[in-house]
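Good morning C.,

I know you're traveling, so I'll keep this short. The sequence:
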Amino acid sequence: MQRLAALRPTLPILLGAAVMLSIAMGLRQSLGLFMQPAVKDLGIRVSDFTLAIAIQNLAWGFLQPFAGAIAARRGFAPVLMAGVLLFVAGLAVTAMAQGSLGIIIGAGVLVGLALACCASAMAMAVASRSAPAALRSTVLGLVSAFGSLGAMFSAPIGQALSANFGWRAGVIGFTVIALAMIPAAWFAGRVDKVPLPPTPRGEVEAASAMAVTKQALAHWPFMVMTCAYFICGLQLMFLSTHLPSYLDLCGMDPMLSAQALGVIGGFNVLGSLFFGWAGGRWNKAGLLGGLYLARSLALAWYFMTPPTPEATLVFAAIMGFLWLGVAPLIAGLTAEMFGLRWQAMVQGLAFTSHQVGSFLGAYGAGLLFDAAGNYDLVWRIGVGIGLLAGTVQLLATLPRWPTAPLRAAA
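The tokens, ready to paste straight into the viewer:
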């Protein structure tokens, strides 16, 4: 009870971070709903649309460490607010697109830059600083769970608007929803007033971003986690971008895509809560390895059998449970290894690997689909690499590694 009472002063910050994350991730994960109607309306190829999503992921990934470094030096508030404004602008440009260039600039570049400033890594860093150490993993799971709710309402709204008024109306609806992130980012930005915990003995409080980066890249458990994170991005971006297209090819009801994304969002909540709770009790890296293996097996089962509405929703529930469960585990591991001051930046370094995988999951899958006319090779590659990544991550947990404090140079 006393531990929960310790959260009261920072509860508005945590709620702001959770709402901001929920809307940002919900809208981003639902952009695949507009792929088929936009491709037909604009006369572009599937790979043109997926190139925009791929560029979004690269922009998000490569800017993330810089956004984290700026937040460490200048504070979270200006970074979060800039991200929200970029998100609104990106959706507005997408709604007005007249060809592939407009989609690339709006849904690609601008939304990608926005996500680096106001999505998962930043929200998790805000939550980490706002929570006491004893409750940090659980709080990260709660924020991640709340952040999973966005797809539950954004996907059905986007699909309904697109079906009745055209895909541009759906994107405009997303733009209106994105405006709600402005007050959420303002509350989350108040974390700048929360003091950092005392620096442990032997650590350097004012270490440079370059020094922290070098130490992270030389820390092998962090690099194992970072490399395995690649498959997470590849698998999830393939599903969020291409599942609606796959179901359309199989002759399924278009509303099934929105229902599947909504189910993913709902079970995201349960998965985030579970892995946040589990990360406070068991080895976080081992849980990550098991999660990657379970995802890969679920993908193999679903794509090896003809899709049905029932099987699709069961698959969506399984993947939803395993979807954002990585967020509290990655954030918790990063905080344990490198502390809170540079968490957003160091987590951003790992996230770059995730986004390279996302690039291939979106654009690479689009290219292979254009070449073969189906997704058979794509899902087989995703399953194979996923099984390898999960196994390596599990093996890396056998020797227990210490945290990596930021130490002064000799």
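Safe travels,
E.
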